[in-house]
Amino acid sequence: MPAPFQIADFWSLAPEGLLTVWGLLVLVLDFGLLRRLEGPLRRNILGTFCLVGGLLTIALLLFTADFAERPTPLDEIVARDSITWWFNGLTALLLTLVVVLSMSNPFTEHWGEYYALLLWAAVGMMVLIAAQELVLLFLALEMMTICLYLLTAFVKKRRRSAEGGLKYFVYGSVSSALFLFGLSLIYGLTGTTRIEAMRSVLMEVAPTSGLSGNLAGAIAVLLMLVGFGFKVAAVPFHQWAPDAYEGAPSPITAFISTGSKVASFIALLRLMVHGLAPWAHREGSLVGPGWVGLTALLAAASMTYGNFAALAQTNLKRLLAYSSIAHAGYLLVGVLAASVSVDQGYKSAGAVLFYLMIYAASNLGAFALATWLARDRGDEDVEGLDGLGYRSPLLAVCVVLLLLSLVGVPPLAGFFGKLSMFMESLNTGKTGRLTLLWLVALALANSVLSAFYYTRILKAMFLRPPPARPLGPPNVAIGLPIVACTLVLVVLSLRPSLLVEPMTRAAGPLIGMPAAEGLDDLETTLSRAP
Amino acid sequence: MSDEFLLSALWAMPLTGSLLILAVPKKAEAAVRTTALAITVLTFALSLLALRAYVTEPANHFAPIDASLETRALSNQIRYDSDGRVVSSDIEGDLVVRSPWIPSFNVQYYLGLDGISLGLVLLTGLVSVLACLASWSIDKHVKAYFSLLLLLLSSMMGVFLALDLVLFYIFFEVMLLPMYFLIGIWGGERREYAAIKFLLYTLFGSVFILVAILIAYFWPGDVPDVMVHDMAFKAHSFDLPKLQAAAQTGYYGPTVQRWVFLLFLIGFLVKLPSFPFHTWLPDAHVQAPTPISMILAGVLLKVGGYGLVRLAWPLAPLGAYDLSWYVAALGTFSIIYGALAAMAQTDFKKLVAYSSVSHMGYVTLGMAAMTITPDPSVYAYGVGGAAFMMIAHGVTSAAMFFLVGVIYERAHTRDLDKLGGLFHVMPGYAAVSFLVFFGSMGLPGLCGFVAEVFVVLAAFPYNLTLAVLAASAVVLTAGYILWTLQRVFLGRNEAWRGLRDMDAREWTIAAPLIALTVLLGVLPQTLVFNWMGPSLRETVAKIAAGASSGTMTRAVAQEAVRTDEARGQ
To answer: What's the predicted TM-score (pTM) here?
Structure first.
């Protein structure tokens, strides 16, 4: 009999609670005090208010950094581990930057609704990151995506925006339905909706045999993979992404491609790698009954298709959309490694978490560039960037660093992200090494391919003369996110350990393995020995 | 001066300079140029200090020339106290520096110098100073140009210094970007195409290198209980000397060595470049501005050769031995192909570019002529020739590209059919050109000759056909070089009457290169082999030990199989 809830137990949900209430306050403020104000002023007041909310959330998280004082009954449903803490923090930071970014550009007049939805989408992401229970996970997923559907279609003047929103909505709701069906099957098979309990049930029933002979389980896993595939935009479930990314207002695109993807990947790690680990693969074979083989195909297809499709794009947002599909592919390789590994899974999962952080920072900065284009030219053609390197050298150099980090050129943080993920992939013991080696080789070849389209942006900025309609000077709302993201990247490039180690430690409980010990590498252990 | 400071300053000084230049006001172009020149001169001075610390007694007390890099590296170990803090990691003055950098990936900040890398560090320092002087006439985005030039210098130095594979890879990759922009912004008409081609080729090559590094890192070992440096060896190390030592033990079996070798080979042959990966080179050279061509040919190509000497062969000696015939044949083919292609060019710069392909073929051939039984000393000729070729070619090719630049600046054409008769117009220029081109051709007494002779000498006992082909390619080389000189300088051509001869700045650039072309040809032993020799012998001994231990293991294994079969019968 679990202990009854106490009010104090809900303290762990304080960041989510704060943002929810803040969203309501935004609406009240907008319809009440600011009713008579027009355009930019109203936007800036609301934006600043949201900014305060985001910063308060971050402060609250810092204040509750000692998250594990005492176990509560709530922990079984909403995790309060360090992964939640770090990624709630990331979501709050991303939210703050997206709020800042939104202040650059008058794409709508309904700022109250816009900001409230933005805050609630962030709440959805945070709950999704923490969800330990399938129903809650589904609700969080829906809360996040429904807010994002609406935000995507928010630019009423642009037909593309409505089209993108609709497409996102239709694809998203179908995938949600499939996902829900998968959840119900799993509930039927295991008799529980809690991920931890699910794992122990499966561990008893089928510890090593994978999914062989288990048709219902296979269907359930397939449906869940389809659901996650849509959320993280993996091929072949990616069709919504380019259109939604292109149609949505640029700050929202930034939020979809970073926050929503990051949260979905955390949920994927919790549910598939942790909860359904016994169904991953049959012992001794990677390509066999189990969801791992399927994920390998998704990973290979996503990175290859994403990169090839990006080669042909002339629109910056579409280009970044396809590149983020490719990044989902790389990340799936890491997820695979985490589930295949015998004793080092937490390291692989830690590498995935590290990569997610870096990916989020780089991508947000890149979308800030797209916002700049949208503000001054109305379109997002890469050609619009011509000659930018000579008009705003500082920001252009920042963008160079962000893009190179996305390619994975050393010594930038993106390289260490890829390196740690691929290194851990090869570090997985005999079972999967060969398949993973091929996947890693494919991923590296793909990184080179990606250099081709990222350098098109560099080429436009530095090798071309300015066009007839050049970009105007940047304002703080555009400059700040670019510079902030670049600073984070530069710090992480010089000292990757700052984040690698916390991420590896955070991934320990996620994978269900003790992580505090064994972190020290062999070299250190050896040289510490007398 | 502590060696930690010296080795770090070799790459950090240009990097700091690169940032410093950004702080100089935009209008003060002269100040920008002077700062850049001062930084390159200082860097060159540092590399000379490194030479002094390595060569002269008693300065080299801790790093005498014949103390192998491996021993010196071994004595620098990172030690921790009981709290896990680093206590000591470095022995002063031994030209090896080691400290932890990213412990979670086992990546160290780990630099070291020996004879082979020192030669290239000196070359880099010198060519950078000259390239900086040659850049005086650049007037477009001056600040950005010199900043990128120094960034490039920093990464080139880093590549030659790094002893940690990841650090090596990082410096290797950092080189690409400044080069991309230097070609792409300041290049000729088709600069965008040339720049992206350069970038993609090299990036693709580096993927092969990265995969090879990762395999070397993760390979679980084909032979149980290998002892390296009196410790049980487990993989998961990026420590280059340690991995080289492991490669001698048979820890990496024949199959994996072949893979590792092949991956490294492809990666570095792109950079070298060798047929069939050379097609980026003519484009890059033709489009690049003169100083960048000098650096590209003088230093950047050597990174490929250095990778072969330092990584490909010592990390996979057995794989190299198994594939050596093919590699040697590829090298020979490159020599002949490059020479023939050079002969067919009408663009002066493209001709010099193809001559680089031809000359770099000698590096491949010298490395691949692996006659390790009964006596690896013959092979030492090949490796020595390859290493010397890198320096000699670094000097002559930088000079040749500079000379092409001089005439292009005046005549605004590089078309060999339009040039001609320059001997009478610019006698000083003609004299320098004759000397440098003869040096590149391999005229006895000049630097190219020494390298070619050593390589061909090593090739004879290895394979007669290849040796004869390589030796006879000298005729082709003489053919295109003499024909070029004839087309550019001899005869009469009224069109070029009144062209200025070389001015003082140009003479300053040419003088050291001329001097080295002659001196390296006359005194190779005193100037280079005296201090490079021990390192070369160490490398050769390592490769030979790795290759022969592997062949022995294999023989033993085959013997065992045979006995088993015999028993079965």
So the answer is: 0.90
